[in-house]
Structures are given as structure tokens and as C-alpha cells.
Predict the structure.
Amino acid sequence: MSLLELIKGGTGVIKVEERELTVAFPLSAIAKAEAAIGRDLKDITRWYQLKWEDELPQVLHAGFAKFHPEATLEDAANICESLTAEGLQELHRALIRLNFPKRMQELEADWERRAAGKTSPNGESGAGR
């Protein structure tokens, strides 16, 4: 199982050590994350620009608000701190997938085609869309 298991309804479950936390990004969580990091997150490219060391924990903390209002920024930072670089990358991509599932599906299909030496059906790469 991956670090963040996506479930229906735009939510995911993070399992770290003995803890299981539900993450969701309704508009209120997006607004909280935007306020915390000081920039807009309504576009997928902004999510890719998140800095792991300080912004990712703040965004993760905002994602806990709906189901775990008791979770602190320190909790989110500790989760991120406990991960390897690969684990942080996995978490980062999973959060993007949670917020942009259709776009991530398109991008991942394009990455697979490119890795296999093929181009997308329209002959373009998906990175610049």
C-alpha cells in the first residue's frame, strides 16, 4: 500500500507508523493552505512548486482540518520529517492527485508513453498544458 491511499469523495488516508489520518481539500482547506503559504493553489502547476521543507507540511495540515481539527502543524511537520525523499515525493504527488485526479491521470499516462518512447496522441508532451 502507498503512503496515501486515495478513497472516494476526494479524500485520502495517510498511514504513518500507528496513525491513520484522513486528508481532504474542500474549498475551506484550500483557502487555509493558500493563507498559510501566501499563494494560490487552484492550479496544478502551483502544487508542483510546493517546497517540501516548509510549504508541504502547511498544506498537509490544512488537509487535515475537516476530519482531524485537533491535528497540529507540528503533527504534519513530523509526518513529513519522518519520510525519506522518496516518501516525500510520493506524498507530494498523492496530494496533487487528490486535488487534480483527471489531470494527474492524463499526465501519468503521458509520462508512461514518453518513457516507452512514444508521444501523446496529439503528438505533444503533456508537460506544457
